[in-house]
Amino acid sequence: MTRGYSNPTARLQHVKRLAGHFGHFLRNQNRSDSSRNESGTRSQRALGAVRPGSRCVASVLSGMEALLKRELGTSTLKATGQSGGGCISHGLSYDTDSGRVFVKINHKSQARKMFDGEKASLEAILATNTVRVPRPLKAVDLEGGGAVFIMEHMDMRSLNRYSARLGEQLADLHLHNKRQKEKQNKAEQTVGKVQSDIPIIDKFGFHTVTCCGYIPQVNDWQADWVSFYTQQRLQHQLSLIEQSYGDREARELWASLQLKIPQLFAGIDVEPALLHGDLWSGNVAEYTDGPIIFDPASFYGHSEFELAIAGMFGGFAPATFAGPSDLLSEQEPMALAGEVDVNGCGGDEGEADAIANASLLAGFSESAEIKALLASLPDLHEDRVSRETGTERFLVIMDRYQEQPHLLDSHLEWMLNMLLKLIRDEKSPPLLVHLGFKFLYIISKVRGYKTFMQLFPHEVADVQPVLDLLCRQDPKDTETWETRYMLLLWLSMTCLIPFDLSRLDGHLNSEPGLNREPIMDRILAVAKTYLRVSDKSRDAASVLVSKFVTRPDVKQKRLGDFLDWTLTTISQASDLTMEGTVALDGALQSLAQLFKHGKREDFLQYAPTVLQCLDQKKISESSQAMLRKLGVKVVQRIGLIFLKPRLAKWRYQRGSRSLAVNLAQSTAAGKVLDAKPELESGSPEEDYDIPEEVENVIEQLLGGLKDKETIVRWSAAKGIGRVTGRLPKELADDVVGSVLDCFSFQETDNAWHGGCLALAELGRRGLLLPSRLSDVVPVILKALTYDEKRGACSLGSNVRDAACYVCWAFARAYDPGELKPYVNQIASALVITAIFDRNVTCRKAASAAFQENVGRQGTFPHGIDILTAADYFAVGNLNNCYLTISVYIAGFKEYTKPMIDHLVARKINHWDGVIRDLATKALHNLTPQAPDYMANTVVPQLLSIATGMDLHGRHGAILACAEITHALYKVGAESNRPVTDFLSSDSVQGLKGIHQKLSDRKQYRGFGGELMRPAVCALIEKLSLSKMPFKEDPVISEWQSLIDDSLSAKQSIQEAAVSALAALCEEYYQLRPGVADTHMQEQLVSQYLAALRNPEVLMRCGCALALGSLPRFMIHSKLQQILDSLQEACRMTQKEEGFTEARRDAATAMARVCVTAGVCAQGSPDSVVCEKNMPAVYEALLDCMNDYTTDSRGDVGAWVRAAAMTGLLDVTLQVAGSAPELLSPAICQRMMCCLAQQAAEKIDRYRAHAGSVFLQLLHSTHPVVPHIPHREELLSIFPPDSAESLNWNAASQAFPHVSQLLRLPVYQYHTLLGLAVSVGGLTETTVRYSSHSLFEHLKSIQQDSTALQQFGDTLLCIFRDNLRNDRVSVPFLKMLDQMLANSCFELFVSVENHPFCVELLSLCKEEITKSKDIQKLRSCIAVYCGLIPFQGDVRKKILVQLMMLLCHPFPVIRKATASQVYEMLLTYDDVIDAAVLDDVMTVLSDTNWESDLTTVRSHRNQICDWLGVPRPTVLAKSPAQ
User: Strand (E) positions, 349-414?
Assistant: First the structure.
């Protein structure tokens, strides 16, 4: 559906948003160079300056300065000492004969292209004479690679005074091309007018390539904006995503979005405007005379593109885009970067933040549809379906604005008026009135009741009608609660009339005998009634109370009574019942609203009583979380009543904490203080006695911080912030100390979480003084790593998330100077949490907090560089965090050791094995960054943990020792140093002694052994690979014993043991290169061969894999013996049918042994694969392809088949590469046919594996596999260029390709055999696509009698070969039924007694003889009925078989046969004489075929007579008759 737009600006908001998404991706991919400016004060800096002392600058000075002198033609070239740059380029300033220049330096190969684009961009902008840019001079190649870009030097500072002028000049830049065009058109009509030298651009693009960071922008000219934007901006970026990440979802979403982009620009005439192209706040500044922009990536495009990027990374000051709207009106209306809305926050504190609202939606574009829908309510309300459809549509539209409800503001009034008109109409039926209120509720839910209720009419004349209508409602009606809710809100607004309510009562006793109740009492009665209802009306009733009871006339007469009623309700109600809980909820809500909106002087006298009542009720001990939250809310409001409403003079004030306001240099500080007029912010802070009840309030709030529910803790934290803001400095400091007491390790995670929330609130409000940071920061650092193990999981993710929130709040609360002493600690802790936390929410929260600190503090080391790698989305992938991002960040020395220390202290002993494993791999990757620290500090620490008592610590430490040792070996190998050069002798002995200590303590036993065995095996492997000097050491035999013992353990331990064995043999069992220690060779090989006959399946598996892992020198002279034993282990016998896993691993091992040994056609069978032993290898592997063993786990034979397929691939490629003459045509044909069969079968995973192997063999070019049957035809079916895109797992893609193999005679049998299992299977998608593909093939050969005959013969051959094989025969019969039902053998039908039908009938009879398989019998009945159209005597034979089945011993089969025969006779009218057809049909339909056989047989015999077939006779001792 095409989105409708009410005006061009709304439509262009969508354009802007789309451009913004592109720009945001572009910026995150590769940020521009000299725009890496630190936030905060940036005054008096040279162009591009970010941080002095760039590491690359010194390396280029010597050779570069001579080049600069030559290119600039200057005799003077003196560095000024001003340096700068970012993560893309570095910069230096020089004084020359002609003045000062700024030089950007980049050593990348693409630097010249980047600088040429920037130079062209600056020249284009400079030519417009609209906005100031540095004048470009030259781009020059460096001799050693890279380039420099020389430009005018300008002394700049942060954009401040000239924000508004920048907006005006940007508007002039965007309009320049259009104005030039208009001038030219005018000039053409003027005689003798000189044409301008500036070219007029009427296309979109640019004359050269520009770069955003290192990413080249495609700027080819396009005639229209949609094409340029779609193809050369969005498509280009999506292509980069696909190349880098292979993101299929992004590709699919882009395909859908691409079609909708033209709709966003429909009807818009976009004029090409010259753009900066990368206009974010880091690429603008000001100098003495005005604003300046730099680092452009220009092109001619839609000016909205510019503003979209301008809204990112904090955006610009509001003044920047406040002025140019009148200029921009000269072209299509443009969507400005954002609206500024200054709102107070923090309740009594009066803090104000300027919030820039960047709209995702452009406006309320569905207003016309909503108008039509509201107007149609009188017509649709009576029909339930129409009413529900209309309501649902209204809900869908409104829900789109949940996150941007302010877009509805200009439309709320007319929507409200339309609905109120229906409601007030006396002719409106009750159902329509309720529907109107339902729509009003939906609007208020989206916009918020506080905003929406203010639009209700609240004249004096409205009070009585609203009250009367509310009184007529049934509070117990569950269908109309929206009506009551909205009426209560409406009544709340009518209570704001300034007149005394007694005036509305008139003369209450004017009529004799009639006493009318005053309106004041009626409203109070209504409020009390609805405070006790169980629906949402209770919330609206509390709002009514807050508005009504605080009226001057009502509070004078009824406030005390109402509070008495409320306290009585609280005292008498019980939270153990639903009714009592509801009453307590309503009473507490009303108190919270009253104490929030009432005046202090009115409620101060009641506050002690209310607090005492709450204390007695012990709300904090209630089991209902909502009651506890409301209790905390009431208590904090009472506390605020006790304290005078004033701003604390002692609080820390940074000034405005809004970036937008800071940039605009508004006088926000004054506004903060004046935000609440009622606050006493006058002269020196007066001393007054703090009521003793305040201590009680604070104690309850501190208790609320430890509540088990987050909503209660959050309410308590806000209460702590509000109350503390009114306390004297000394008492406030005591509160901070009490909050810090929450961070004791005797406290629960709830207390830590609540404490973090409270600290964030205190910091945000300026109540946490910098002097307290020395106490607070260490606590927050602990909270960032809080993790408490509970059973099989842990608690603490909420604490860590809240600690990140504290860091985020501190970034806004404090000046950089205050946090400077703690910067490195906080930065390291946030980075560690962002990349190493187990919980993705915590990682993202830490990344967001880090970004906030980088932007607002500007002191975090390498902040922007780290954010580029560890942004909010990148930290979503845990593996990427541990193994990639961590390595990049560790390259900055400030973070290296803290990261390593964290992994050692907190992660290698983590309860989650995945985290331990990732931590050890991360330590491996980080070792090159600090090898000496790892060897001298970390390894000794780990060695003590590795033999400690903590199981998880031992496991992680052993793995970490292994990984670090191997990493140290790799570091040493680069300089030909052994690993022992890094490790001390104590560390070497410690590594060697780990196994013995664990063995002595018997720590390989039980559950702990399942972790220790693979860990120590990994240690053995890594120490062996690291060439530790243990040759001839007794520890080698101890390690070998452990490996042998682990081969009989579960699979994960076996795999670790096998890997360790391979490394151990390679390093310690060679006498010299390629020559084995014969003693160990004989011992190991004979031991493992003997174990292949072990009765334990795990022992067979482990020893088979061990044989497969042996190095070549270990199997030399033993190859034939090993192959024979493995072939025997692969063979499936009836006795050993249960050894499926052993057969799988034997097949895997046999292939590995062959690959390890190598191939030589004439070699010795004891040493290499040759012509004597290779056929037996293939025979064994191909036999494994027929392993269809099943047990309670399902088709476990698939494991063997998959291993055999992998083995065939590996061995075949090895043989084809070394001795292709060994591959006979027969072997290749059988192998490819077996793979084709597997590729046509029903299990997706194994079909995909078979298809992949099939295509790898077919497409292999180095080497080419010989003798593949029908190679050319196969290549046409499976072209090499489309092989990767073919998804074999998807039945919709696989079967259309596989079914084409049916055309090839060699593959037809096996392909059809595989298809039979799929077509007759149970999985709906597999059946659908396989049968469709099969029938498409059959349709193509319907007129080819030879092909059809061949297909039929193959079909019969398959049936014959698989008689009584239920795995094949049952789905085969189902497939036959489908073929016959689809008339696939129409050519055979007219031939008398066609051999196909005769043979098929015979095979079916044999298949079901004495069968008790109901499914098979049903399928056979269907096949018989499908064979009826065949002509000749065979038809009578088929009818005889059907008549026999009518008297089958199984009643369900008799009934199924009767039903099928009935349908068959209806379908084929030539089977029976028309004269008796009705009689036969009557007997078939009316007979109870499930009754006893004697009764059924008489009816069956009657049918036989009518059909003219002999009656079947009962044979003695034959239950089938």
Answer: 351-357
Which region among 347-351, 1344-1348, 1463-1467 has the lowest average model confidence (pLDDT)?
347-351
Spatial CA neighbour of 549 closest among 529, 521, 510, 577: 521
Structure-token pair, residue 260: 């909708």
Mean pLDDT value across residues 1055-1063: 95
Question: Long-range contacts of range 64-69, CB-CB < 8 Å, 24 or more positions apart?
Answer: 64/103, 64/105, 64/142, 64/148, 67/140, 67/142, 67/143, 67/148, 68/94, 68/103, 68/140, 68/148, 68/150
Known active-site residue 474: no
Report whether 1310 contacts 1236 (CB < 8 A). yes
Residue where the block lists tokens 């990349």: 835
- 1236's tokens: 């084709």
Q: What is d(CA 1017, CA 1158) in angstroms, rounded to the nearest whole number?
A: 28
Number of H helices, E strands in the chain: 69, 19
What residues form DSSP beta bridges with 1159?
A: 1169
Cα end-to-end span (Å), the chain: 66
Cα–Cα distance for residue pair 293/151, rounded to 1 Å = 13
Nearest 5°: the CA angle 177, 150, 54 is 120
Strand blocks (E) in 631-711: none
Instruction: Name which of 232, 188, 233, 223 is nearest 202 in CA terms.
Output: 223
- pLDDT: is 1007 or 1105 the higher one? 1105
Q: What is the largest CA-CA distance in the chain?
A: 129
Cα–Cα distance for residue pair 1028/1023, rounded to 1 Å: 6
pLDDT at position 729 over 60: yes
| Nearest CA among 875, 885, 962, 892 for reference residue 924 | 962
CB 102 within 8 A of CB 134: yes
Cα–Cα dist 1271/1259, whole Å: 10
- Residue 157 CB partners (closer than 8 Å, separation 6+): 42, 43, 44, 45, 285, 286, 287
- Contact between 1088 and 1106 (Cβ < 8 Å): yes
SS3 at position 259: helix
Q: Which of 1139, 1071, 1141, 1145 is nearest to 1104 (CA)?
A: 1145
Tracing tokens 């590729």 back to the chain, one arrives at 1239
User: Residue 860 carries which DSSP code?
Assistant: S
CA 120 vs CA 284, 1093, 1165, 1453: distances in Å: 18, 78, 71, 86
Degrees, nearest 5: CA angle 19-21-22: 65
> Which tokens is 1033 given?
């050491």
Question: Global pTM?
Answer: 0.69
Judging by DSSP bridges, how do beta strands 284-287 and 290-293 pair with one another? antiparallel
- The answer to whether residues 783 and 752 touch, using CB atoms and an 8 Å cutoff, is yes
DSSP annotation of 1472 reads: S
CA of 729: how far to CAs of 716, 734, 766, 1137, in Å?
20, 9, 12, 82
Is 1306 strand, coil or helix? helix
Query: Annotated catalytic residue: which of 33, 278, 733, 749?
Result: 278
Q: Coil, helix or strand for 140?
A: strand
700 Rama sector, left if φ>0, alpha if ψ -120 to 50, beta otherwise: alpha
The answer to whether the CB of 1134 falls within 8 A of the CB of 1093 is no
Q: Residue 1207: what are its φ and ψ, rounded to 5°?
A: -60, -45
Task: Give the pair of three-digit tokens for residue 990.
Answer: 């410690």
478, 535 Cβ separation under 8 angstroms: yes
- Mean pLDDT, range 1194-1206, rounded to an integer: 95
User: What is the residue type of 1188?
Assistant: Y
Average pLDDT over residues 431-449: 93
Comparing CA positions, the residue from 729, 714, 808, 716 lying closest to residue 772 is: 729
Please give the DSSP secondary-structure letter assigned to residue 856. Answer: H
